[in-house]
Amino acid sequence: MKKNMYTRITLVLFIIGLMIAVQYNTIQQPAERDTRDIWDIREELSMEKQRHSTLLEEIRSLHEVVDRYEQSEKTSLQAALSETVNRLQTQAGLTKVVGPGLILRIEAAPELIEMGYVIREISPDLLTQLLNELFKNNAIDVAIDGNRVVQTTAIRDINGRTTVNSVPISSLPFEIYVGTSSFKEAQKMYNSLQASSLVDSFYLDNFNLVIEEPMTQLTISAFDQPLTNDYLTEVEKGE
Amino acid sequence: MWLPFLGLLFGLALGLLTNIQIPSVYENYLSIAVLAALDTLFGGIRAQLQHVYDDKVFVSGFFFNILLAAGLAFLGVYLGIDLYLAAIFAFGVRLFQNIAIIRRILLNRLDEKRHKKNKTSIE
Can you tell me where the transmembrane regions are (chain B) (predicted)? Predict the structure, then answer.
């Protein structure tokens, strides 16, 4: 009888111990303390919101495509398909684009040349930074010295020469064409580039970054090399 | 005698080593269940010391109290009343009372023992 009692108490104590340990584990779970203040959280929230709206936009555009397909199914499937192909080609940068945008000119700072500074080739890092800044300001099409920037574009140093799409950049000055979705966007980009510290970064490298007034009709050349594609394959017909 | 403590240690070790975690939503329920379990445990010890311990009462009280406490908390969440506070209050008060009674009983026993020793030494 007594032995039986001990067994039961042992069982109960075992359960109590287990519960306490689990509770302890659960309380200790956030080992890393959340030290973000309200502004960090706000920033994160706005970032997520932006992502949300981007996704919504994407969904809407895909819906439109579906609608178009459904409408044209009876009339002409081919037209819809070729339209999609055209749109994708434009998106990928395989076509010439005419639209609003602005031109950035990079030239050697003349006063620094007179002071005897040696003007070197622009570094890939600086160019990448500029590109990031442009895309941050909603740039859509960018061509650096006539080389269209696409998804697979690499800006890098090859044997001491800075290249875009493996084509060396011509000597200074050269121009960067930036296309935006609307003239208003181009104006916004113009203003924010004027205010950004990029111009200073360029001057540190002995360059002048000249930002020209936004234009309504800017022609940006197409990507002229074959688009290599290592991972996607065509689906066989009928599959 | 040491078997219950072994059980406690084994339970603690198992919980800590396996690092089981429950979703934070159920944290409240578990904390209340732990409180109820502790209350039952100390109630059991008190009953044992007062020689009124009953196995059935102890084991059924253990599970019933846990379920009742968690159920009250659950109901409270859906009614918008902090009913778990009632459980915490009740169990907390009883826990203290039980421990106080246990303490008194143990002190009395100690006193009695001392008394007996004194008596024998005087004689």
Answer: 29-45, 57-78, 84-106
